[in-house]
Every structure is written in C-alpha cells, then in structure tokens.
UniProtKB/TrEMBL annotation:
Superkingdom in the source lineage: Eukaryota
Keywords of this entry: Cytoplasm, Cytoskeleton, Guanine-nucleotide releasing factor, Metal-binding, Zinc, Zinc-finger
InterPro entries in UniProt: DBL_dom_sf, DH_dom, FYVE_RhoGEF_PH, PH-like_dom_sf, PH_domain, SOS1_NGEF_PH, Znf_FYVE, Znf_FYVE-rel
UniProt protein name: FYVE, RhoGEF and PH domain-containing protein 4
GO molecular function, one term: guanyl-nucleotide exchange factor activity
Pfam families: FYVE, RhoGEF, SOS1_NGEF_PH
Predominant location category: cytoplasm
Any one cellular-component term (Gene Ontology): cytoskeleton
Sequence ranges assigned to domain DH in this UniProt record: 1-170
Metal-binding is among the record's keywords: yes
Amino acid sequence: MLQKVKIVYETPLKKEYAYNPSANISKLMATFTRLDNLLKYALVFYTDIVGRLEKWDETTKIGDVIFKFSPFLKAYSEYTESYNEMVTIIKEEKTRDPVFSSILENGMKHNISKGLDFGAFLICPVQRIPRYVLLLSDLLKCTPEDHCDYQDLQKALKKIKEVADHIDAAIATAENREKLIEIQNLFSTPLSILPDRSLRAKVFVPGRRFLFEGNLIKQCRKERKERRFFLFTDVLWYAFETVPGTNSYVLSGEIDLLYLSVRDVEDNAIPQDKCCIEFLSSGKSFNAYASSQDVKMKWIQQINSAIEKIKQNQNTLNRAGVKEKEIAPVWQPDEQALKCPICKSEFNLIWRKHHCRTCGLIYCDTCAPRIHNSSDRICKVCK
C-alpha cells in the first residue's frame, strides 16, 4: 500500500507543488517523508521474516525478528500523531484548490488504486500496529509454551502492545486538540463587541481535555434560557449563542471542578420543572433542566466522574493551597417572589427585589440591606 501511495499520489503532488507550496501542502509533503521511512522499515522487516519462512522447520523462530524490529515501530507513533491534521488539511485543500482535488480524483481512478481514495491509503499505517498485536496474540495461542520461540514472542507482543498504547494515546491527544480547536472557533466573537460581563474563552490550557457538551435550559435570574455547556477535565463552561443559528458563542460562566458538585433534583408535579440538575459551587449555584431523564443522568454521570478524577489527581499530587470553599446558594427565580417574606411588602417598580447572598431568597431593600459598602446583600434572617 505504501508503495502505491508514492506512485499514485506522492509523485504527481510533488511535481505540481515543487515550487512555493502553501503551508498545508508543505505539511503534506512532510507526511510523505514519514511514509518513506515507514516503507524502508517495512521492507527490512519483510525481508527478515521471509528469510526465516523460506527455511521453516519446527524450530524456526520469528519472535526474535519481531522483537528486534519493535523499536522502529515508534515511527508509526510519529506518523499517527500527524494523521488527524493531514485528514483536515486534505479536506481543506480539496475545497480550496481545484488542482489538488483533481490530482486526488485521478489517483483514485488509477488502475492500481482499485477505487481507494487518498484517505484509505493514509490510514493504513495507523491500523498496522493493532493488527500486529492481534497477529502475535493469535500466534502465541498456537505456540506451545515449551517451544523455543515462545518467550521471544511474549517479549515481542509486550513491546508492540506498548507501542500500540502509545499510538492510542497519540490518537486521543490529536483528537482532543482538534476538538479544542473546534470549540475555540465557536468563541471567535471579537473582544471589543463582547458584553461587559462576558468572559474570555481560553480553551487551550495545559492538561485540559474535552469530555462532554450539550444544551441545557439554565434558570437565570428573571427567566430560563438555553445555554451551551462544555465539560472539560478541569472546568465546566456555559455559554450563550450570540445570534440563534450562527453557532457563535459568548462564554458567560466558568466553574472549577474542584469546587463544583451536582445534585439530582427530584421531579415535582410541575411539568416544566422536570429533569432538573442543581449545580452547586463557591462562585455561583443554579438549576438547569435537561431535555429528558436520560440526558439529565448522562450529565450528572459525566460531571461526577470528572470531579472524582480531578480530586484523585489533587490528592496524588498533594496540591497545597486548595481548600474547601463555601457553596453559593441557588437564587430564587424572580417570578416566584411576589412579596418580601419578612415584611410582606409587595414588590413593584419602586419596591425592588434583592437576592440574599447567603440563602438565595428574594427580599426587599429594607429586609436585605447591603453588606458594608458592597452591592451584595444579606437578609435579616441570615445575619
């Protein structure tokens, strides 16, 4: 397959873009260099294996050949790390460059391609190592433990599994990077036109991985609004769409998972209150509503799993300075408060509503005075 890539795709592409290639094409050419290295290793490996098979008898060994070859398999890891980026580049260039698209179409029509497109060839090295693992596992099952090749096959399988694990990790890292880029692009609104209270969406943070996303109906102060939630390994984001249907978002909240907990709120008789999740944190607490019980439980499961892992890592690393913080109360929705629960005064344009920062309930100006010179208030009950 790798030899076919050189004939069908590498040669015409290098000829067409020999001078002043774009950044994307240059990256693609670097991939061909990696493929050339893989082909060299594969040919040496093939020659050694065939040499043993040609002199086959009951005492012939191939485990030592595979074990000797295993360090070179790390080249497959390097190739795999760039694979996802190459797939993205190919899609972009096919849309942008008619000449590039034509070369790929002609390659697929080539008699030795047998209808396979460029991507089908590029994925072959990614699939090779898992196939080696399966092959060696089957070979071990068919090899008696007292055979002279058994221990070498075991060592070879162990080494190749290590490479396979490294490749799996590289694939996961590459996929996570692509997803983070995708999310970053959702928050492309210029800072100059963002609302005053919006947060800057900084997606790329060391160690951060994407976990889960979806829409929930968040209980805001005056009404319920749809928000897009993004769960990462360290934080939970919620954002609003700038204009419906534009797929462009503004970050309105960020909660550190170390200080977050979620609670499954039991359904009551009111239909619109079903599938409620209570988000409790030191900075802000609120209720949000899922579209179904399944979605609700999925969110709770994902968040609790992420919280458990980050707290385990915190204990493992023995991080200093991380202390428990007080949980902010869930604010009572404005529409639920018609009068002050202490003085019974009815709320109106003059007699305004104020949330107590301790209990989250709504009181009047008199019954929930300001705390010193700040805008925060605490009701007389909580004082």
